[in-house]
Write the structure tokens for this entry.
Amino acid sequence: MAATDIEDAPSRAPAPGEPHSLARVLRRNHLAGLISIACGLALWEFLSRIVVANPLFLAAPSQIFGAVVALAKSGELERHIAISGVEFLIGYAIASLIGIALGLTMASSAVAKQVCQPWISGLYATPTIALAPLFILWFGIGIWSKVLVVIFLVLFPVTINTEAGLRTTSPRLIEMLRSFGATPRQIFVKVSLPSATPFILAGLKLGIGRGLIAVVVAELFGSRAGLGRLISQSADAFNMPELFAGVVVLAAAGIAMTAGFGWLESKLVPWTRD
Amino acid sequence: MDARLNRGHGMTAKLTVSALTKRFDSLEALRAIELSVAPGEFISVVGPSGCGKTTFLRIVAGLEPATSGRVLIDGKPVTRPGGDRGFVFQTDNLLPWRTVLDNAMIGPEVAGRADAAARRRTLELLKLVGLEGFEGYHPRQLSGGMRQRVNLARALAIDPDILLMDEPFSALDAQTREIMQTELMRIWEQGRKTVLFVTHQIDEAVFLSDRVLVFARRPGRLQESVEVTLPRPRALAIKRTPEFVRYVDHIWRLIEDDVRASIIEEHA
């Protein structure tokens, strides 16, 4: 008996005499993606400098890069990132904890589920970001109104995924554990929780994008500092390079966090690959 | 080939089933099952689909309550799953996030006895079922046959008195299944545990068993108990002997009408 995974790996180098096809070279070095980005930026630069040629409407990538560097040097970028970062992290952490706890409660009690389900489904479908002005009215323009908006946007996907993950635990695996005389607690720890982990991580991942939107939009409605504030300030001043600088920093944060989650998934739940 | 229901009866019976009945609402899944199994006996249960053979096994396992009647192991009534019975499932039901060794250790772990001794024993068992060198593999890296070996080792790891096997080889291809049958025989010869083996393969039942219980359907009931007196240890070649074929023919004739009826029903 041989392990099925020890199959001959596809050889990397082309066989002698085989032509180096362009497609093969592109695929191997992720060149296609890099070229795509480079072309996109070049087109953007061209459109912005030659076609639009109006700094009030569009900034070129080179100008945006310059703005990022200038903002970083003045320390202003750091200040905005710190404020938005704190708002995001506090809100995200609270929403994750409550979301997982709520999901666990709903999965373990039919009554709790009946009580919570309509609210969670309803609020998940509602664009609760529209409540941001109300929260600012209640809690002022400091960080706590933003934290609350982040919580509202991140909480529900985490709750829904946690509950779904626990609910869809394979009945066969539960039965297997039961055949060994496992207690409900043992079944939960040894089967339900590990098999729900990929779902919980997916919920948390979904929460990153929603959380970033929450921070920025809430700051647009009223704030003293933060990346959303930087963007709205720049828009008011028709300072396109700085507006885009804020957007670029947000995009980078989103990409970095999502990639970090991908790495976390490959470490924590490797069995869900392929 | 007389029905000898009371072979293991008396003080020595490992497993005794009396007047066992199971109903699912209006459906009578099992009616008045009587059975006595001696320690170390290998018993197979065959029958058409819907004859209640898996339900019977699940009741003995304590995974399902009986509607009436009794199941006794060493004279004590079965009410829930216990460490005296190891269940080998039709699907392997391995935990995908655990290695082969950690999967096989789940029984001792649940019982709170996952110590070094249990670990050593489980490693021995993995060797016994032919998985030496694969202890650190994950289920997704194994073939179907290897996963069923883990399934078997996992049940053996609690050192049960009775092994309950629910069509464990039905998902395997024909060649792998034959190999697994001989492997099971080899492992059983070493420990001589009491085995209750559910299958729909008549030749598999005859090859493995001391006794084949033939179940009928509507309601599920014990139709005949066929004693298999073929000499042990048995090799695959025995399947081509006239004696073996006679057993298979006899059992097939017992269930043929039922099987045809169940096929028609399934397509209705």
